[in-house]
Amino acid sequence: MTQAGKPSPLQRFVVAPSRKVWRGLTSMRTALALLFLLALAAIPGAMLPQRDLNESKTLEYIEKQGELGVWMDRLQLFDVFSSSWFTAIYVLLFVSLVGCLTPRIWEHLQSLRTKPVKVPRNLKRMPRHISETVDGEPAEIGARIEKNLRGWRTDVRTVEPSTKYPDGAVEVSAEKGYLREFGNLVFHFALLALLVAMAIGKLWGYEGTRTLVADGEQVLCNTSTAVYDSFRSGAMVDGTGLEPFCIRVDEFSATFLPSGQPDMYDSKIAHTTDLSLPGDEWPTTQVQVNNPLRIAGDRVYVLGNGFAPTFTVTFPNGEKRTETTPFIPQATQTMLSEGAVRVDTPAGMYPNEDDRRKNQIAIEGLFAPDAVFPHANLLDSASPEPHKPTVAIRIYKGDTGLDTGRPQNVYSLDQRLIDQGRLTQQASVNLGMGAETVLPDGTRVRFDGYERWASVQVSHDPMQTAVLVSSVVMVLGLVMSLMIRRRRVWARIVPVAEGDKRRTVVEVAGLARTDQAGWGEGFEEQARGLFAEDAPKNRAKL
User: Fold this and answer.
1) In the CATH scheme, what is the code of domain 116-177+485-538?
2) What is the C-alpha separation between 308 and 306, in angstroms, rounded?
3) Domain coordinates in residue numbering, the chain
4) Helices (DSSP H) in 290-384: which residue ranges?
């Protein structure tokens, strides 16, 4: 303050506005508004393609939208959950909730330490009240009431003689249900711990996905982010501190309902944390939906599956190349899949690099596990079960783009190479298992069969246990706060003279702190049992 009693400029323009902003931010109304705003902000992330999930589809969507797509990209609508505005809302919500919960935690902690409220002046105003005249000394009756209120927090006071109470009085205050406040305290502590655990888990967690052919040959080693098809991580993960382990999908099976919908996926996954251990000595584990493999603090899930056709290309000089490549399902109920295969020429077959690029083989088309031809030669699949595996493919010769360094969609050929004439179509055929076709230059392409592939996700969340424990404790605290009844009982014992005899007037009143803690119809009987001499036998429990 200044000498004239006016606030200083610092207080007027910095302290007071900051205090006002903080109070507004940490109000429950603001927390609810931010929670609603966060839900709205997440809608674009669910409606629009996201770059961290599928960059190629996102870029294709932006290109189709033209100038609108460019502006949407500038507004980070394709990176919603890592955008600056979504992060700002999340941080503000976190700060608001912490600011809301911290004072409430302190209030609940203080309420656990408070004594029962003193006896009100007029007990007759309480919802439940009785008054009885009994024999006995006030101190004796007060001690009896305190004893019978076992399990209650009690406070016995002796009132000195006064105009209202010439012979003094004894007052008993009692309260039960403090565990209700303890439940509130536990709930708020657990909620705060849950928020902190989730934030830490997002910062130090990561998820990586990879498609593996279930032939026991392809191995995924969690040693670098480069081994994944897609990798998402928190801000504190740079990919250098991954827990080392290796997995291999040896077998995969899928069962389907009569409608064609998936019923169960079952994978046999070999794994090891000892990278020097030979592959044939790795232990195996059956991994199913919602039953992941837990290894080195990470979890390995099986997310999707499909078929990987195997093609053998025999070049004019007799050398062969065999490729097994995953095709992506286009119809989940029939597993009709599409994909592309790129086959390089054998080493030394064409010493000149330009000649080698002009003689690469590319295959693009469809795979049907249960082939049918509803319209002439148009391939379709009747079911997801592999009863009659067939492919409908177009075979190209030329530059497949393997040496350009430009990223390509693994499931389709680069249309620009075809439009530029660098890839020329040589044949378009339907092939069953074991069938082959011969290209004009004598190259043979044979469809050998198929393998199953599985899409595995490696998930790391260092706070998974903390989130689970916080959630369980939060539910227990909530149940405790809802189930436990909070009640108050007051008794005033006043000695009175009735002729030559001295008797005692006992007033007992009860108050339920919540609507659910009502006394019912038996309050009077219960209250009389508090000061009756045979109370331990007859009194009803309050």
Assistant:
1) 3.40.1000
2) 7
3) 9-112, 116-177+485-538, 182-203+464-478, 206-460
4) 353-358
